[in-house]
Predict the structure.
Amino acid sequence: MADRKYKINTNCVHGGYKAGPAEPQTPPIAQSTTFRYYDNQDVADWFNLDTFNCAYTRLGNPTVGYLEEKMALLEGGSAAVAASAGMSAMLITILALCEKGDNFVASQSVYGGTYNLFDHTFEKMGIECRFIDQDAPAEEIEKSIDDRTRAIFAESLGNPALTILDFEKFSKIAKKAQVPLVVDNTLASPVLCRPIEHGADIVIHSTTKYCDGHANCVGGMVIESGEFDWFATDKYPGMTQPDESYHGMIYGEKYKELKCAFSVKLRAQMLRDLGCAMSPMNAYLTWQGLQTLPLRMARHSENALKMAQFLSRHPKVDWVQYPGLKEDKYYELGQKYMPDGQSGVLSFGVKGGKEAGEKLLSALELTSIAVHVGDVRTCVLHPASSTHRQMTEEQQIEAGIKPELIRLSVGIEDIDDIIRDFEDGLAAI
Ligand SMILES: *Cc1c(COP(=O)(O)O)cnc(C)c1O
């Protein structure tokens, strides 16, 4: 296991797995559903959660474990649990924190898929999401919090709204309410922002995006800081009371010292019951991606800034939003929380609105139209007619999606080639 003495570039390469003598240099893919035992007591110990060995891949797998360890190191957390997708990472986190009748508070500018899960699917389960404007003053946001609130959720860098979270404000609100601050750090990646350093208690990733980075596989991750005090209130019986579905185990007690109580609950209860485990092959591919994450994030950020500058100068472009632009609303917060770069995603609108935008998309050659961000390849998408089309126009506007908005995920190709593609595309409209 990599040492905490190393810094993030080193941990991206070495963190989580170290070959022993004559062992493979890259993490072996444990493509096995199950693991053999010889002494029946060892199996009993595993079911008691007294050992962290593997027994069945739905609940843990060596290859997935290497990735979890690496992600925990990169985020500065104490433990991590992988899930089959970013969405399932979100699902298991909220289900582990909220009971029927509870609520949680979330920024209204979250990713479209997250919005649907929060607004509709959780509602069916009796868990209410209260959406707030993350730029509102703390007193305003606090009006949505009551004694049944169990979490505060926001994205460090909003997809595709490109909001940047005011961590100072949000961590204060969460501390005062004695609930965990849960931050989706997908778009920034741990290279550009580490939410735990800014007061987050739980960090979520869609590893599908920059962590994988090569459009290979869907995946999710939940990382805990290990610092949240579950016993400070009676809000988290799931952590502080015996789990009847696990012969009376009290997660918060048993794993307090190891600082992995929340992760054990996610694994032993949520992955067990919901089955949304990451596959070993996907863990391996994501691992491969993470090794070059710092190099890619630097190039993505550099290219995106140049692209944002190019587009803001172009006569056919109406507006550009990118937190790296000095005139951007989130420039200051970007410099504060993501000083090394503001990632590869920007949004813009062309003159002539939605129709002209759709024409532009079809005129691009190098750039792919793809439902994706964080890929090495440059991709574009029109959210109002795709990822956010289930929302009403009013909800879209609230979520920061104007009808003409084009989301551009700038890849790591030569910036001159990307710019030329857009010069040609804009000339065609
Ligand atoms: C893509 C994305 C998700 C969902 O992740 P999947 O891996 O697609 O399930 C969640 N949050 C953000 C910010 C995303 O970009």
About this structure: The longest helix spans residues 293-313. The longest strand covers residues 149-155. The radius of gyration is 22 Å.
